Amino acid sequence: MEREAGTEARGARGVGGRSTSNTVVDSTVHQLVQSSYIGAVHLHAAEPDWIPRQIRPPHRTFVNRSAELAVLGEALERSRDGSGPAVVVLTGLGGVGKTELVAQWARKVRDRFPDGDLYVDLADGRHEGAVDVSEALGRLLLALRVHKDYIPSSLGERGKLFRTVTAGRRLLMFVDNAEHAAEVRALLPSDGLMVVASRRRLDSLVLDGARTEVVAPLSTEAGSELVRGWLGSGRGSDHEVAGLVELCGGLPLALSAVGGQLLTRRQMGVRHVVAAIEDRQRAALPAVGGDGAVDEIFETVYRALSGPARELYHLLGIHPGPRVTLDLLETVGGRSGGGPVAEAAEELLVAHLIDLADEPPRGAPPAEAPEEQYTCHALVRAHARRRARAEVSEPAYQQVLRSIVGYYRVKAAEADARVTGGRFRLQEPPPARTTAGTAPSLAWLDREGPNLMAVLRTAVQQGWHGEVWRLCESLWPYYHGRKTYGDWIEAHQLAVESARWDGRPDAEIRMRNQLARAYYELADQPRAAEQLDLAGELLTLVTDPRLRGVLWETQGLLCLARGQAEAAVELFHQALAANEGDAHGVIVQRYNVAQGLLAAGRGPEALAAATAAAEQAARDSNRGMAMRLGLLRGRIHDALGDTAAALGCLTEAAELARTQEQWAKEDAALALLAEVALRAGDPARAAAADARLTELRRAAGVLPAEELRPEG
User: Fold this and answer.
1) Span 32-65, pLDDT tens digits
2) Which helix (H) or strand (E) holds 193?
3) CB neighbour list of residue 282: distance below 8 Å, 6 or more residues apart
4) What percent of the chain has pLDDT over 90?
5) 217 in helix, strand or coil?
6) Entry pTM
7) Vertex 380: Cα angle to 374 and 384 (nearest 5)
8) H helices, E strands: number in the chain
9) What is the residue-averaged pLDDT of the chain?
10) How far is residue 243's CA from residue 258's CA, in Å, rounded to a whole number?
11) What is the pLDDT of residues 612-646, one digit of tens each?
12) Dist. CA 658–CA 193, nearest whole Å
């Protein structure tokens, strides 16, 4: 069932008005911290001096960008005048060095941005020309240490929170691979400096005060200086080096690839590389079809690779997503232990065909950083795909692609099992390959988000429908916990169709229900109801009563959102009956019944249902539901006028929420606790709850910037 998060009903009583307006609810349980609820709040957020540094380190050699550096310097000064964010748009050909220019400058002026630097690559999430800007804002908020429970669902609310937490901060923000002015505007911070890199001119950003600078290819002189910086003066004549620069079109990306080859093969002369490139151009070999002469540069470098490095390059071309890890390369390549695959990856790194994606993990402390990822420039990736298609037989190509899809399906299933435990699943249990905990599992899902969507789309194109819905089923804790609604909806739309093609009505019901939950959370009730109706038409084709239960549960939540409390109670009772024999499911549905009864004004019955559920949760050591039931019982007691009992339940709920790092639930419990204490004539207790609430929100990163900075 889609019940593992214990969703609080929309339309039920909120958390109280005086102390908070936050209504974020029910993220996945994280049992990461055990601590007393007495004394200072220790939230295990980032250390106070933790500063995001997401722009990758620069390469060692860099030449002749004085004009562009001057523009960035001027923008830096503008960003300090208090008039809002300064914006610079760097535009130019792919491979001309825009990203390297920003990396070089960011390292030199790091001390001028004491609040850190942020990086977002819009190419990672771009599909058919569009980018989910809401998801990008979510990533940026996580990087700014806003706790996931506090990130709202809508694009508008995320934008407001982003502007709130960036106000007064001296931040450098780098938006790479932008294509449209609108997607840049949605990411504008309140203060600091935003640098945008794009192959297109985004002239309308001038209305936002942007300065546009064209980054041109290197001149022959500057390109020669760059090459000499690698090779020294003893290799190749000035004429030969100048010819190489001209053949590379003055593009640093192409020059770096050739330079890496020359450095690893010292017996090779510059003239040999120039001759090889010219020969390929004259022969018009099949590699041509990309970016002209630049594509020929990659072809020349590719031909000089070792056999294992070529195989790895092919694998990179077959992989549908933007990034890979060594674990994936070893698993799919059939090798382990870091031998041939690691050596081949190092060869590609030296050749500048791939690079390390040096982005900190999203939403996890630095100590929990997942495995490093490799990435490559879009021009290189396109060449790798053409090489793979040209040199890998179709059966072998399909086998590798199928292995990649299978890799992500298994890894996602493992992560799902670690995050949500023994929840109801249609697919077979995942293999116990690793023992990573909840936080690393969610960090992996965060990190692999763009790859997971690319894999889902590829599996659909290939007709591997069983893989699609199984992978999507395992992504429930990721989508429900991280609220990436654009991907959530698209993934489940794909999974619904795949379940139909796979002849699995049970899977279609499950996918439609999970899709309905996305629409429900976005308050799009008509679409949610439509999915539930379509799923209901399939119930005669399945036998597992829990599938009926998941639909009744979601229908009940929709009824509560519409103010139809009595109808919701009846649906929750039906869901309760459908869960007979499933201990966790019974507790959840009793919780829902109690929510419905409270909304219907039937307080004593609501208290009886919630108490019965709490007793069962205690017997089963179900601490997650015990926490939610404590909060619900506090609300019920408050509604019945029993403030002493309400205060006891709310205090217990806040403590349980804290030990499980359910920050939004702790927030809700503390806010209501303060409100009830004031009404009960206990201002000291109310003040203590408010103080703890402020500390919680400071650690969650949602207070204004001046309040977020550590004291002293």
Assistant:
1) 223 334 334 444 444 445 788 999 888 777 777 8
2) strand 193-198
3) none
4) 47
5) coil
6) 0.79
7) 90
8) 31, 8
9) 83
10) 13
11) 999 999 998 888 899 999 999 999 999 999 999 99
12) 36
Nearest-5° Cα angle at 54, 49 to 55:
130
Residue 500 neighbours by CB distance under 10 Å: 16
**Separation between Cα atoms, residue 697 and residue 338, nearest integer Å:** 43
Dump pLDDT digits (tens) for 552-604: 999 999 999 999 999 999 999 999 999 888 888 899 999 999 999 999 999 99
Rounded distance between C-alpha atoms, residue 154 and residue 156, angstroms: 5
d(C-alpha 239, C-alpha 305), whole Å: 26
Evaluated on CA atoms 503, 507, 512, 518, the torsion sign reads negative
- Inform me whether the pLDDT recorded for 697 exceeds 80: yes
Three-state secondary structure along 662-701?
A: CHHHHHHHHHHHHHHHHHCCCHHHHHHHHHHHHHHHHHHC
Contacts of 267 (CB under 8 A, 6+ apart): none
pLDDT category of residue 376 using cuts at 50, 70 and 90: confident
Per-residue burial over 362-380, b = 16 or more CB atoms within 10 Å of its CB, e = otherwise: bbbbeeeebeebbbbbebb
Distance separating alpha carbons of residues 358 and 443, to the nearest angstrom = 15
- Give the pLDDT of residue 281: 55
Measured distance between the N- and C-terminal CA atoms of the chain, rounded to whole angstroms: 49
What would the pLDDT profile of 180-231 be if each residue is shown by its tens digit?
A: 999 999 999 999 999 999 988 888 998 888 999 999 888 888 888 888 877 7
Q: How far apart are CA 293 and CA 245, in angstroms?
A: 11
Spell out the residues 6+ positions from residue 473 whose beta carbon is closer than 8 angstroms to its own.
416, 425, 426, 427, 495, 507, 510, 511, 514
Query: What pLDDT is recorded for position 39?
Result: 38
φ, ψ for residue 195, nearest 5 deg:
-110, 130
Query: Which residue bears the tokens 């489940």?
Result: 492
DSSP line for 401-461 = HHHHHHHHHHHHHHHHHHHH-S---SSPPPP------HHHHHHHHHHTHHHHHHHHHHHHH
- Confirm if 13 and 639 have CB atoms less than 8 A apart: yes
The token pair at 63 is: 């030449």
Cα 582 to Cα 546: distance, rounded to the nearest angstrom? 9
Q: What is the dihedral of CA 354, 360, 361, 362, to 10 degrees?
A: -120
In this structure, are strands 373-375 and 323-325 parallel, antiparallel, or unpaired?
A: antiparallel
Sheet holding 323-325, edge to edge: 323-325, 373-375, 355-357
Residue 704 confidence (pLDDT): 62
- DSSP letter at 598 equals H
SS3 213: strand
How many Å apart are CA 568 and CA 7, to the nearest integer?
14
Tokens representing 142 are 């996580």
From 290, 354, 316, select the one nearest 93 (Cα to Cα).
290
Mean pLDDT of 436-441: 71
Q: Are 481 and 521 in contact (CB under 8 A)?
A: no
- Sequence-distant (6+) residues with CB within 8 A of 501 are 463, 465
Higher pLDDT among residues 234 and 621, named by residue: 621
